[in-house]
Amino acid sequence: MQWSLFLFILMGQSSFFTCHMYVYHFIGEKKTWDEAQKYCRENYTDLATVSNMTDMERLRKSTETLTEAWIGLHSYPGKNNRRWYWSLPGLEFSETQTRWDSEEPNDYRGQENCVLMNDQKWSDYPCNDKHQFICYSETKQFNKSFHVISSMMTWPQAQRYCREHHTDLVSGLDQLDDDCLISDSVKLWIGVFRDTWRWSDGKNFSFRNWENVEDLVDGQSDKKCATTVLNTAGKWSSADCNEEKPFFCYDDKLILINESKTWVEALNYCREKHYDLVSITNPHQQRWVQERVKKASTEFVWLGLRYTCTLDLWFWVSDEVVSYTNWASGVKSDDCDMSAVMERGGRNQWFKKPDNETFNFICSKN
Asked: Is 11 among the domain residues?
């Protein structure tokens, strides 16, 4: 890459820029859930989506009011409307990668929306049964460990325990197949559950923060809309959608451009019409961006990450530090005139592509 182009890219933004990919807004006016959804879509992006505990803390800090408020989670009851999820945020559940025992899942005891593992085989069980469970821990240095907890708890209680003392319930086949995971021949809760709850904006985030077991289970009469109760550490509850409550909206700072452009054309487009090509500096941002990438019309989507031969380094055009990466195995290497893309499918990993290829791209907004 020519030195003049490198200077253009780095100097195109006059100041260091760091922002959240979305912001929360607390609306104190009381409305029904449907009215709140309409208000948020007209004035912001949608009712609040909450993807993990970091989001939950940000949402709580967006107001000093201690009250119950709508969020963008709605239940569509019915056994056929249930969807399986991994408990650990960011992992996508695949129906083709499961370990069900023979004739499972079967709802043998009624509504069975949580999963026990015995000798690597899965069975669906009622979530309010009490069993031992496995927690997963990961440190900032990416050290991992597994913990079999002998205390008998319901599935939501086990999930809460793991999140408070470790990272989460064991989740994903990579964790279940890890050599460090040792479990005796006993039934153990793992991080698989299903429910009929959907986010208003259509995102597929699995994060739930229920106060009571009953809110996780399908078929709760007319209580089909979710609230967060700010004076109980932000735990969630369900309520009649026709009740009037204050609510949280969110404003998305990302936009997927379904046009195919070269990397430089994409950069210029974002800077002329929005702010910049998107930067990803942590796993949470990766999860948020990959939800957008899934709706792209090209196999890959440009990111704001480029390699410069002049300085022999990869850099974000927004001046963010390249601390977090999500390269596919064996892909990253230092080649001139290459920029990073995220794959639309699979595990949404990063690949390098020549700058003159054309793909969709994601812009960050002011």
From this structure: yes
Which amino acid belongs to residue 66?
Answer: L
- 95 and 187 assigned to the same domain: yes
260 belongs to a structural domain: yes
The residue segments making up the domain with residue 92 are 83-195
Inside any domain, residue 126 = yes
Spatial CA neighbour of 125 closest among 210, 208, 184, 213: 213
Q: How far apart are CA 32 and CA 58, in angstroms?
A: 23
244: Cβ contacts below 8 Å, ≥ 6 apart: 30, 31, 32
Per residue in 219-250, pLDDT (tens digit) is 455 789 999 988 767 789 999 999 999 999 99
- Give domain status of residue 115, yes or no: yes
Residues in the chain: 366
Q: Which two tokens stand for residue 304?
A: 């704001």
Q: What SS3 string covers 158-186?
A: HHHHHHHHCCEECCCHHHHCCCCCCCCCC
- Predicted structure pTM score: 0.79
Name the domain count of the chain: 3
